[in-house]
Amino acid sequence: MKRGPKEIEDSSRRISRRAMLLGTAQLGMIGILGARMASMQVEQADTFRMLAEENRINIGLIPPARGLIYDSEGVVLADNEQHYTITMTREGAGDVDEVLARLDRIIALDPEVLEKARKELKELSPFVPVTIARRISWEDVARVTVNAPALPGVVAELGRSRTYPQGLDMAHVVGYVGPVSDFDLSRIEDQDPLLQIPRFQIGKTMVENNLEHALRGSAGTKRVEVNAAGRVMRELDRVEGIPGADVQLTVDARLQNYIQARLDGESAAAVVIDVTNGDIKGIGSAPTFDPNVFVQGISVALWDELNEREIDAKLHRRPLAAKTVQGTYPPGSTFKMVTALAALEDGAIEAEDTVRCVGHTDVFDVRFHCWRRAGHGNMNLNESLKQSCDVYYYDIAQRVGIDKIAAMGRKLGLGERHDLPMSAIRSGIMPDKEWKREARGEDWRVGDTVNASIGQGYVQTSPLQLAVMTARIATGRAVKPRLVRSIDGVEQPSGAGESLGLNENNLRRVRRAMYDVSNHSRGTAYRTRIQEEQFRMAGKTGTSQVRRITQAERDAGVTRNADLPWNRRDHALFVSFAPADNPKYAVAVVVEHGGGGSTAAAPIARDVMLQALYEGTPPLSAYPSASRGQIAEQQRRLADLIRDIQPGRGTQDT
Amino acid sequence: MSYLEYQVKYVPAGFRKLLFLNWPVVFLVTAVSGFGFLMLYSVAGGSMDPWVTPQVQRFGLGVAVMIGMAMVPIWFWRNMAVVAYLLAFVLLVLVEFVGVERNGSQRWLDLGPMDLQPSELMKISLIMLLAAYYDWLPLNKVSKPVWILVPLIFIAAPAYLVLSQPDLGTTILLVSGGGAIMFLAGVHWAYFATVIAGVVGLVTAVFQSRGTGWQVLKDYQYRRIDTFLDPTQDPLGAGYHITQAKIALGSGGWTGRGFMQGTQSRLNFLPEKHTDFIFTTLAEEFGFVGAFGLLVLYALIIIFCVMSAITNKDRFASLITMGVAVTFFLFFSVNMAMVMGLAPVVGVPLPLVSYGGSAMLVLMVAFGLVQSAHVHKPR
Fold first, then answer.
1. What residues in A contact B295, CB-CB < 8 Å?
2. Where are the transmembrane segments (chain B) (predicted)?
3. Helix (H) or strand (E) holding A155
4. Could A228 and B139 be called an inter-chain contact, meaning their C-beta atoms sit closer than 8 Å?
5. B364 within 8 A of B352, measured Cβ to Cβ
6. Average pLDDT, whole number, for chain A?
C-alpha cells in the first residue's frame, strides 16, 4: 500500500513520540535497577558479606590429646592408643555392596557393624564417611591399603583412644574414661564444647574423673569451607588445642601389681603409705576389673555380669568398688591404739597401770566379753596391745570417755574424708555423743563407749584411714595421704604433715607395744613377723565382728568362722609400719569376711610390706624360718600373676 | 514496499551495506556476550566445559545470522512476518503434544543435535507480525475496536499456549512486547488506561476479598500467591534461592570478590547459576562496578535501538526495532529485578549472558532485524 509523504511523516512522528516515551520509561526502570544494585552492593554490602561467610564457613573442633597418667617411676598407667578405623563414603565407593563384599574378603568384618554401616551408607549424604570397622589391626590396615585400587572410597583413619596398659591393677586408682553420655551432660555444668562431640571420652571414675579438668586439655578449632550441601571443601585455618596435662601418681605400678596379685581371690583391700611424705605407694582392691572394657562403652552382658556379682550372687564381692576408700569396716582391735593414746594423753592411766581381765566385764547389767574367754589376767598397756585383751580397753575407755577417744581418732585421721582424686570416698564414722544424738536421736550410753573402745559398735573406718592412722602413730605427724605427685610437671604439696602434738613417750609406748605384737612370742602377729633385722615390723591385728553373738550362742559355743556363710564371717584386719625403729611405710590390710586378723590379714600386710621395703621380691631370709617353705611356694604361685614392669619414660619432676 | 515509496538520496548496496550497520549495537552485543562467556567460565569452575564452548559457537553463529539478515532488505522480513508467526505457532502447538519435559515444564522440541524452544521463536515472530500488521493498517483505523481485536488475538493465542507449558516469564514477555508494539503503533491511550485500570481493579478485588464471605480464590491459592510475591515466607523452598541470590549479590560490594572467587556460586549456594541466576555470580565476583557496568551496556543497547527507531521513517522498521528493544529490555529488567528480590521468581534468562542456545540465537535474529532496519533505512 502506497502512503503519501504526509502520512509517512505523521506515522513517523507518532512512533517517535511514543518511542521516546517508552525509551524514557525504560531508562527510568534501569535507574531503579541501578539504585537497587547500589543499595545492596554498596550500602548493605557488609551485611551480605557476613551472611555469605556464615554460609560457607563451619567451625569444627579438634579434640586435644588427653593427658597421660604415670606411676611414680614413670610407667604409663593411662595411655592414648592410636588405632585405625576403616571408613567408607558412598560417593567414593560407587557400588557400595560390591566394595563391601570385596572388603569383607580382605578383612573379616563384623556382620552387626556391617549391617549398621549399610544402613547409614544408604541414608546419609554420599560424602559422609561411615565407619565400617573399628580398632583394626595393623595387618588389616596394610591389607586394605595394598588393595586400595579395588576399594574406592575406603579409607583407613587414625583415631585415638584411651588404654590402660596395667589392665586390672590400676582400675581402682586410675579409673576409666567412657563416651560422654546425656546423663553426664545433665549432671555436670561444663560449657566445654568438646563435650558436644559424639562419643567424646571423658573420665568416669577415680583419677580420670577427678582430674578431668587437667587431663582433658582444651579444644582446638579449625575453620572449614563447606558448600551448599555441607561438604567440606577445604580447611581455611586451624588453631591447635592445648593437650591435656600429664599426671604422675605416687603409686608404684610394680608394688600395685604385687598387691593385686597377692589379694587375688580375696575380697580385700590393702593400702601402702610412705609415712615420710604421705605418698600412697600402693592402693589395691580385690576383686578388680579391666577398665579397658569400659572405654568404648561396656557391653550390656558384661555390665550385668559385673553388677550381678554385686547384687545377686550373695557374695557381695563388688568388683567395681574400690574398697580402699569406698569400703568401711569396724576397725576391731586395730582401733585399740586410739583408745590407748586417748587414755594416756588424758592421763587417765599410766602405761604400767594394770587391769585384771577375767574374760568379761559387766557394765550395769550387760556383760561384755573378751575374745579370750578364760581371760588374760593382769594387763598393762604393752601386754593388752600385744595380746589384744579387750577387757583392758573396756575399762580404760570408761575412764577416759568417748569424746576424748573420738577426738584422738579424728586426730589420727579417722572419720575424715581424706581428699584424694578418687571417687565416692567415704568418711566412715568416728562416733561420739553428739554424733549419736544427731544421727540416731539417742543418748550415748556407756555400753557404746565399751563397744567403741575395741573398734566395734558404731565405729566405721576405711582401709585408707587405717593406713593414715598407722602412719600418724608411726611418725607423730599429721601425715596426709597424697596420690598425685605432679600435674603437668608441677609437684603437688607433700603430705608429711605437722606434728600432732602428742606426747612422744606415750607414742613410743604404743609403738613399742605394736612392735611386740609382731616380734614378741606372745604377740598376736608373731608368726607373721619380719625376720630381717633392719626391717622389723610393728603392727596390730584386728578381727571385727559383723554379727551379734547372742548369749545363747555363747553358751553353746561360738560358731567357728569357717562354719559360717562367707558374708557372716568376721573381717580380718591388720595395720603395720616398718622398719619399726625408722618407719618408712605404713600398711593397712582388710580382708572382708576373712576370719582372724592374724591369720588372714597379717600375712598379706607382711608380704606387701616386704615387697615395698625391698622394692621387689624379698629374699626368703626376711621371713621367719618356720614359714619359708610355705612362702617359697607362694612366691612361685604368684610369679604367674606378676608382670615385669620396667620403669618408664614419664618421670615428670625436675 | 521498497525504497520506491520514499524519496531517498542514497542507497547502499552489496558489501557497502556493512558500512551502514548499526556498529555500536554490534559492539555492545559482543561486549555483553563476552561478559556472559566470562561468567560461564567462572561458574563452570574455571573451565570451558560444559558451557563456554557451545555458547561461543552459538554466538559466532548468531553474529553470522545477524549480519546475514542485515544484508537482506527489511521489506523481505516484513513479508516473512506471517510465515514466521505461523511457523512459530505450529511449533508451539507441537510442543504441547510432543515436547520434551524438563523440570516439570514442557517447553522444548527435540531436534536431534539441539533442542528448540518454540516460545523463544514466538517472541520475535509475534513482534514481526504485529509490526507488519500496523504497517499494513491505515493510521486512521489503528484505534478502532475491531482492528484492536485482531492483534489481541495474535498475542493471546501464543500467550495461552506458552502459559500452559507452563512458562510464566515468556508469557509476560509476549504480552508486554505485544502491548508495547500496539502502544507504539498509536493505539489510543484510553485502551491502555482501561486495561491497566481493569487489571489493577481485578487484583485489588482479589486481595480485598480475602477473608470475606465472597472471596474469589481459595485460601491455599492465596497462600501460593503470597509465597510467589514474597519468597522469604518460604525460606527453605523458593525463598532459599532468592535469599542466597541476594546474599551473593550484596556480598559483592563495590568491586566484587574477584573473578572465580565468589563463594556463593563456587560452593553451590546459588541455584541455576549458569542460567537464570547468572547475574548474581557476576555481581558477586565483579561487584557493583561489574553489575552496574553490565546494566549500562544494556541501557546503551536500548538507547541505540530507540535512536535508530526514531530516525527511521519506515513504519515497519521502526516498529520492529522498538519491539526488539522492548523485548530485550523486558528480558534483562525482569531477570535483574527477580534476582535482586524486586520481582517474583519467574523463569527469565539474562539476555546474551545466560547459557541457552535458543535464547541466544533468537536474540541474534532479533538484532539481525534491527540491523536490517538500520541498514535499509530510507536516507
1. 30, 33-34, 37
2. 20-44, 56-76, 82-100, 145-163, 170-192, 286-307, 319-346, 352-370
3. strand A154-163
4. no
5. no
6. 88
Instruction: Please report how many Cα atoms fall inside a 13 Å half-sphere around the Cα of residue A404, on the Cβ side.
Output: 16
- Based on the domain organization, do A261 and A136 belong to the same domain? no
Paired with A131 in beta bridges are A87
| CB of B124 less than 8 A from some CB of A | no
Domain span including residue A354? 253-639
Instruction: Let me know the angle formed at the C-alpha of A405 by A403 and A410, rounded to the nearest 5 degrees.
Output: 95
- Chain A touched by B352 (CB under 8 Å): no
What is the number of structural domains in chain A?
Answer: 2
**B143, B191, B289, B310, best to mutate vs chain A, most A CBs in 10 Å:** B310
Give the mean pLDDT of A182-193: 77
pLDDT at B260 (0 to 100)? 86
Read off the pLDDT of residues A542-585 as tens digits, 9 standing for 90 and up: 999 887 777 777 777 777 777 888 878 899 999 999 999 999 99
Mean residue pLDDT of chain B comes to 88
B157 in contact with A at a CB cutoff of 8 Å? no
| pLDDT tens-digit readout, A388-397 | 999 999 999 9
Its sign, for the CA torsion A455, A457, A462, A465, is: negative
- Answer yes or no: do A486 and A621 share one domain: yes
Domain end residue (candidates: A160, A188, A204): A160
**Residue A559 belongs to some domain of the structure:** yes
pLDDT digits (tens, 9 = 90+) for A288-311: 988 988 887 666 677 777 666 554
Q: Do the domain assignments include residue A239?
A: no
- Residue A219's pLDDT is what? 85
Weakly modelled stretches of chain B, pLDDT under 70: 1-5, 7, 112-113, 234-238
Using one digit for the tens of pLDDT, what is the confidence trace for A529-541?
999 999 999 999 9
Query: Is residue A145 a part of any domain in this protein?
Result: yes
Residues of B within 8 A of A8 (CB-CB) are 5-6, 313, 315
Predicted local distance difference test score (pLDDT) of residue A118: 84
The CA distance from A527 to A530, in Å, is 9
B299 and A30 in contact by Cβ < 8 A? yes
A309-318 pLDDT, tens digit per residue, is 554 444 567 7
Q: How far is CA A386 from CA A67, A540, A566, B241, in A?
A: 48, 8, 28, 91
Q: Do A36 and B342 touch (CB under 8 A)?
A: yes
Answer yes or no: do B180 and A12 touch at CB < 8 A. no
- List chain B domain ranges: 3-375
Say which residue, A95 or A411, is predicted with more confidence.
A411
Q: Give the cell for residue A554.
A: 555363747
d(CA B94, CA B76): 27
DSSP A124: S
Mutate to test the interface with A, among B182, B246, B254, B306 (most CBs of A within 10 A): B306
Question: Does A171 fall in a domain?
Answer: no
Q: Residue A130 belongs to a domain with what CATH number? A: 3.90.1310.10
Is the model's pLDDT at A451 over the cut of 90? yes
Same domain flag for A496 and A629? yes
A260 with A153, same domain: the answer is no
Question: Are A154 and A290 contained in the same domain?
Answer: no
CB-closest option in A7, A18, A32 to B183 = A18
**DSSP per-residue string spanning A544-612:** E-SS---HHHHHH-PPPGGGS-GGGSPEEEEEEEESTTS--EEEEEEETT---IIIIIHHHHHHHHHHH
Distance (Å, whole) CA B241 – CA B231: 9
Distance separating alpha carbons of residues A269 and A465, to the nearest angstrom: 12
Q: What are phi and psi of B22, to 5 degrees?
A: -80, 80
Picking from A510, A538, A532, A566, the residue whose alpha carbon sits closest to that of residue A338 is A510
